[in-house]
Amino acid sequence: MSINSAMQSGVTALAANATALATISNNIANSQTTGYKSVTTSFTDLVSGTSNTNSYTSGGVVSVNRQSVTTQGELNSDTSGYSLGISGQGFFVVSEESGDVDSSSSLLFTRDGSFSTDTEGNLVNSGGYYLMGWAADSSGNITTSSTDSSLLTTINVSDLANAPSATTAVTFSANLDSETEVSDAVTDGTYDETTAVAASDESTTPVTYSAAMSIYDATTGAGTKPDTTISATISDSLGQEHTVTISLKKGEVDTDTSSPTYGETQWYYEVSSDDVTSDNGLNQITTGSIYFDSDGNLDTTNYTGDLLSDGGLTIGASSETSGVHWNTDVGADAQTITMGFGTDGESSITQLAGDSTTSSVTANGTEFGSLSSVDISSDGLVTATYSNGDTKVLAQVAVATFVNANGLTSVSGNAYKVSTDSGSYSLKVPGENGAGTIEADTLEASTVDIAEEFTALITVQRAYSAASKVVTTADDMLQELLSIKK
Predict the structure, then answer these.
(1) Which residues touch 54 (CB under 8 Å, ≥6 apart)?
(2) What's the CA gap between 288 and 266, in Å, rounded?
(3) Whose CA is closest to 71, among 28, 34, 36?
(4) How far is it, in rounded angstroms, from Cα 323 to Cα 317?
(5) Are 9 and 61 in contact (CB under 8 A)?
(6) Is the pLDDT of residue 188 over 60?
(7) Domain boundaries, the chain
(8) DSSP 8-state secondary structure symbol assigned to residue 151
(9) Residue 205: pLDDT over 70
(10) How many helices (H) and strands (E) are present in the chain, helices listed first?
(11) Which of 31, 33, 272, 300 has the lowest CB atom count within 10 Å?
(12) Residue 130 contacts residue 124 (beta carbons within 8 Å)
């Protein structure tokens, strides 16, 4: 009967508009929710198969909800916590639980970048979801994968005191003045860094000092003044800083025709540190000679001592009682330092006319530093900066993309989960292969337009009233039909 179908059609209209009202109310409620994507309700008609040219049976209407997940919300500045936004396509990968991803983990996806730290330093957003990414190894290297989610782990930015790293290599770039005169300290063509010489003091009895450059003191007259020095700051196993000095003194040209260094100029060196104890009591780590040809180039084949050796300079632990070792009060472990010229393709030393100068000194390792800040770059790299100026890559934020992101299924907390409509995800480095870039100190605004929602609200209200009128009218007609029997 057409009256029944008309009533049924009105009922479907009431249900459809009630659904529309629900989406509108939810949109309005989330107009200030970070990264929220508005949902729209459209209507499609239901056609009854019994209609013909002589009669018409109303089918009614059904509502269809569509979420515009791929619509970009406005990125607004926000410096609270670790606020992040995505400029472009993709989602933050999040999890309900912190830790590494395994077979039992359930990954979710969100545009809500309102991250802050929990009590353990994990980044968690306002929905209670933990931010996932790829962790860096001790060298700052990151292994990524587009499909292997087991490489993901919770990004943690707390308790990141920079673990000290002992220096293992020092490189230089320097020049020794070829016009430096050979001093009286070089006797008969030889300089002995351990020879004892007398130094007079008018007010006291003469005292015997070593000729070593490592203990040179202009005030007391101790030791021998070097022609030039090169100093580097290194770190021990505890992150403590120490100054290591290379003292150099020019020798004579080798005139022995049978010598492999014939025609080359000899320079004596001592590598020392006030924080090192050596058996001879001169704070020396090593001593020896290097040679330069007539063009001022270093002879890396012929030398004495360990300065150019591949084995490097070894400093024993503070607990050792013999050999070269750190002083007892240092308390550091043993370490070996490659500290040579011309042995690694980076260091260089020449003997050319002009002042003896050191243009650069670089040492790896780091002294202990407290965490100053954590920065997240546009490619998602999470980098810690320490009070000593050192930086360390901690992790990289992963961005997930989908073939049909609008097919994702919404879950509480402004997040989504994979569905058959969305297809599987692909993990990407931010800014690569179609993934959006990370914008630090920003939050993505909701895509809800309040003006549009209130306009739609009025329309739905009127449509609902009209549908209810259809139901009451059909009811009146049925009542009229039933009254015929009376």
Answers:
(1) none
(2) 10
(3) 36
(4) 10
(5) yes
(6) no
(7) 2-68+447-483, 75-162+370-444, 170-363
(8) G
(9) no
(10) 2, 32
(11) 300
(12) yes
Residue of 142, 69, 174, 25 lying closest to 397 (CA atoms): 142
The whole-number pLDDT of residue 371 equals 75
Instruction: Quote the radius of gyration of the chain (alpha carbons, Å).
Output: 39
pLDDT, one tens digit per residue, over 216-270 is 888 887 888 899 999 999 999 988 899 999 999 998 899 999 999 999 999 999 9
Amino acid occupying residue 303: Y
Compute how many other C-beta atoms are within 10 angstroms of the C-beta atom of residue 391.
17
Count of CB atoms situated within 10 Å of the CB of 225: 14
Q: Which two tokens stand for residue 146?
A: 């587009």
Cβ atoms within 10 Å, residue 431 = 18
**pLDDT score of 13 more than 80:** yes
Q: How far is it, in rounded angstroms, from Cα 80 to Cα 31? A: 20
Q: What is the token pair recorded at 55?
A: 């009669």
Phi and psi, residue 227, nearest 5°? -70, -35
Please state, in angstroms and rounded to a whole number, the distance separating the CA atoms of residues 58 and 7: 9
Cβ pair 329, 347 in contact under 8 A: no
Q: How far is CA 145 from the centre of its chain?
A: 17
Which pLDDT belongs to residue 486?
65
What is the average pLDDT across 362-387?
A: 83
pLDDT given for residue 202 in this prediction: 39
Q: Which of 194-198, 303-307, 358-362 has the highest mean pLDDT?
A: 358-362
* 336: nearest Cα among 289, 300, 285: 285
CA distance 108 to 152: 13
- Short-list 407, 437, 438, 443, CA closest to 424: 407
Mean pLDDT of the chain: 85
- 35's torsion region: left (phi>0), alpha (psi -120 to 50) or beta? left
Which amino acid appears at position 75 of this protein? L
Q: Residue 172 corresponds to which tokens in the numbers above? A: 């230089």
328-337, 372-381, 393-402, 472-481: segment of lowest average pLDDT: 472-481
One-character DSSP codes across 339-368: --SSSSSS-EEEEESS--EEEEEEE-SB--
B/e letters for 332-370, b = 16+ CB within 10 Å, e = fewer, are bebbebbbbbbbeeebbbbbeeeebebeebebebbbbbe
pLDDT level of residue 198 (50, 70, 90 thresholds): very low
Total residues belonging to the chain: 486
